[in-house]
Amino acid sequence: MRKLLDRYKRSRPYSDYLVFGILLACAPLLVELGVLRFFQLTLIAGVIVYAIVTLGLNLLMGYGGLFSLGTAAFMGLGAYFTAFFTGNLSWGFLPSIIVTVAITAILGMVVGLLASRVEGFFLAMATLAVAEILRQVFIEWTWFTNSFVGARADFPTFFSFTMNRNQTFVLLVVFLVIAMFVTHSIANSYTGRALSAMRGSEAAAAAMGINIFKYRIVAFSISTAYAGLGGALLMHFIRFTEPNAWIFTLSLMLFAAVVIGGVRSVSGSVLGAFVVFGVPPLILQNLPVIGDVNGLAFIFTGVLIIIVAMYYPAGLVYVWHDLKKLVYKARAKWGRKV
Amino acid sequence: MSTPLLKVENLSIAFGGLKAVDQLSFEMNEGEIYGIIGPNGAGKTTAFNCITQFYKPDAGQVLFKTKEDNVVNLVGKKAHHIIELGLVRTFQNVELIVSLSVIENLLVGAHTAFKTSLFSQILKLPKARREERALRDRAEAVLADLGLLHLKDMPALMQPYGIQKRIELGRTLMLDPKLIILDEPAAGLNDVETAALVQTVKDISTRYKCGILLIEHDMNFVSSICERICAISFGKMIAIGTPDEIKAHPAVQEAYLGKDDE
């Protein structure tokens, strides 16, 4: 037992992510037991997908210091591509996901290339423009997207086996845990350090041999690949999409998830996605008064964002650090009794 | 020893009508500690930026003897290619990556030594792990040399200014450079820290067998450390020589103290 615990501690935080994933994968069980309602499972699935996208956006924003307001459109692109591949071309789930992620990654490179000459606010505007172009494509190219009638997809199929809703939910959890692993690995590799250097000091980065142009493109490419993956996964869970699902507001909410959860933090990204996408419909709407008035839950989110910005500008993950500090203080004061 | 480590020839750059560096020429040998001095605004930092290709000089050559003993002209190369040739610099107002720890800042300095693909980094393949381990060991050795090993996992942000300067110095040592360029290393340090810095720079030069080119306007610091000095004023070279020769040189005294009207 002790050996197992040591092994657990040694492989942190990967082991933490794994345990988190296993716990999360039990959610369908709670539905079967009647603890959770059916629609709540769908909401949690949404949070999982948005957490994946937030992780990618955190690599771009938190580490690379680059802004994007076009994330939603890239999610939409992922959704439409996988609908097209599995529907019109009747590919299996895995090849469709792989090709979708590859295509969105390449398109991310193109955006990175376009964005390589603009900074800050102008970069945000440029990505916004790209997103609006893509949304117009979703509306106009009916042969590809079916416009406002909407595109459809099925639950994931592997050869002749088709998953049911609960299995698909578990699959989403698996992808989230993989995304957390990958994000942590990238963040702590030399690529992650190069992104940090690019944000911290472009002059120092260049003097240390970091090609700023290349890493801007790498950052965009990784981030849009996550968005494409997220969109595609959501498509196979919800099984329907239309252009209004991928509007600017969603990009802003993903942006907020990064900031609220915690920049440069893997667990912060997941927490941020939960606070922004999960807390209002799952918790606040079930409370008395707040839940009774239409829309009040979402106003509450707005207030929450302001509070976080004021007291935890580095993100909500730091609440955890403060709690730890309190425990240490209490221990110091009252001895080891606590 | 025959060919110089760095040979700057007729280096010039102008911003609008202002000739910030004007026909600057000097050369330094391998392993030498060489100083460039001049009053504020003399064009020292601009000259450095021209050598390291942060600015594109209008004219002139910067001939540098690389790790492979080839002499190459740095002019026209990209700023991020310079370090691979064996030339690395620091900055006047310390450019550390504050979101990273001390040891990670050193690893940023080893960026060009990392060769594994993004794919093997994500999967943490043995190849990528070995590479990371080897360079981490190297970074720890450098930190130990600078007496900073106990700080390795601390955030770079929270270190005092003197320590930050040492970390930046450590970052330049990751890839066995042939020449380190220090931009006002003593600026903002107190007397004790400056004295320690003199010793550190000398140690580095002998232990890592590299040349050091530094800019300063603190004449005492430069004289206690450099074998030869190039004095510049308004972008032009006014004298080259040993510290004593430079101190006694009338043009240098005039540039520093103003013209004697008597």
In summary, what is this structure?
Chain A has 338 residues and is mostly helical. Helices cover 74% and strands 2% of the residues of chain A. Chain A has a single domain (2-337), classed as Orthogonal Bundle (ABC transporter involved in vitamin B12 uptake, BtuC).
List the helices and strands and how they pair.
The complex is a heterodimer of chains A (338) and B (262).
Chain A: H1 2-10, H2 14-24, H3 27-33, H4 38-63, H5 71-88, H6 93-115, H7 120-140, H8 142-145, E1 151-152, E2 157-158, E3 161-162, H9 165-187, H10 190-200, H11 202-207, H12 212-238, E4 240-241, H13 248-261, H14 266-282, H15 296-311, H16 317-334
Antiparallel strand pairs in A: 1-4, 2-3
Helix pairs in contact in A: 2-9, 4-9, 4-10, 4-12, 4-13, 4-14, 5-6, 5-7, 5-12, 6-12, 9-12, 10-12, 13-14, 14-15
Chain B: E1 6-15, E2 18-28, E3 33-37, H1 44-51, E4 59-65, E5 71-73, E6 87-89, H2 102-109, H3 118-122, H4 126-145, H5 161-172, E7 179-183, H6 191-207, E8 211-216, H7 219-225, E9 228-233, E10 236-241, H8 243-248, H9 250-257
Parallel strand pairs in B: 3-8, 3-9, 6-7, 7-8
Antiparallel strand pairs in B: 1-2, 1-4, 4-5, 9-10
